[in-house]
Design goal:
Layout (H helix, E strand, L loop, with lengths): L2 H31 L4 H27 L10 H16 L3 H24 L5 H25 L1
Helix pairs in contact: 1-2, 1-3, 1-4, 2-5, 3-4, 4-5
Organism: Cerasicoccus arenae
InterPro entries: CHP02284, DUF2383, Ferritin-like
Protein name: DUF2383 domain-containing protein
Length: about 150
């Protein structure tokens, strides 16, 4: 595999892990606030499903460049979800803490996508990454509005 293709595969794998982490994170965030804010919990479940679609699209791109499909999350994602649970347990304003952690996770994903967009990729992969970046940017904006 060429060095360029290897870097692309590594970037896509990393972003796909991050997407899988965000699916799990949004699902856990929804579960953590279901009793106090069912509407926001439903919003988080929708975000998890939308992110799952992006994970599937990234997996398809990985297969197209000859890489194995990545369906798991990462250690850092598991740690982030642990932090989310810890903050929920010790913060009096649970919903605000959950939203802040979701924003932090989204900003991390956006940074990963930006890094991948700075490297060479085929047009189909670039399209998926641009779609994901737009989706994440909208998500960050929506989450920031929810804090107000």
């Amino acid at each position: 595999m060429s060095n360029l293709k290897s870097k692309l595969a590594n970037n896509l794998s990393s972003i796909n892990e991050y997407c899988n982490d965000s699916v799990k994170g949004f699902e856990e965030a929804a579960d953590s606030i279901q009793d106090t804010n069912a509407r926001l919990a439903a919003n988080f479940k929708v975000r998890a499903n939308e992110r799952r679609v992006f994970s599937e699209r990234l997996s398809e791109r990985l297969l197209c460049i000859g890489e194995d499909r990545e369906d798991g999350g990462s250690l850092s994602g598991a740690i982030h979800r642990g932090i989310l649970k810890l903050k929920e347990a010790f913060t009096s304003d649970d919903v605000s803490a959950v939203i802040n952690e979701c924003i932090r996770g989204e900003e991390g994903l956006r940074d990963e996508v930006d890094e991948a967009l700075n490297s060479k990729a085929d047009p189909e992969t670039t399209s998926v990454l641009l779609d994901l970046k737009q989706h994440v940017s909208v998500s960050i904006g929506d989450l920031n509005l929810l804090k107000q």
